[in-house]
Amino acid sequence: xxxxxxxxxxxxxxxxxxxTFAIPETAVHENGRKSATYTVLLKVTRxxxxxxxxxxxxxxxxxxxxxxxxxxxxxxxxxPTPTIVIAQPTSVNEPPTAAPVEPTAPPIVGELLxxxxxxxxxxxxxxxxxxxxPAVRRGDVVQGQLATxxxxxxxxxxxxxxxxxxATGTAGWVNSSVIDLPASExxxxxxxxxxxxxxxxxxxxxxxxxxxxxxxxxxxxGQNVKLIGRLGDNSWFNIETAAGNGWVSAGLLTIDPNxxxxxxxxx
Length: 267
What we know:
single chain, mainly beta, SH3 type barrels, 5-stranded antiparallel β-sheet, 6% helix
């Protein structure tokens, strides 16, 4: 086994039917590898001695901890930044119940609904660069803060919001579990899809005639765009727009990593 966490210092929080374990990394550990795939095994033992194991649950590791995991920074920390989130089981013999999957939204290539403003954050959470892994932490939201929700994106069994927090200027993807909204309100948020061959515009920016070429139009945050080509290093993507096909920097887009290789490399 590859030991990176220190379970003796773990803390837990129960909220909305989920148990969140915050587990700090060990002060001294081996270095991970970018090319490897890791499985996190979490074993939970109840006071009566019975236990349950979980292997396929979301793992959140902030940028600093991820850098240390990959061996780019040797310093350890006691800060519980790596977090494992699991559905709370009703018994040790019963697997966690997955949240219902929101139907895949149809692509929105044209106009978006107006952003839903002044939405109150229900509980603390993290703002990420992407709802797909690996993600970088852009900031946090705290209970009671106001947020503007631009679009909603289903990812596996969860829904994510592209959100802006006016008080801090932070923008990024927030899990819907931190914001309690009735259906009447969520229906006011534009649905988008991350299924091939689509991506979501993360930051509004220029569409160019070629990578680094002349600006021909612009895209706005939250837009669904169709990917029709890419450079071999995935630094630029060719997209369809109402003004014609053009190229955007990958940094402007939120793309499911599983979609990237389905997009042809431009000659």
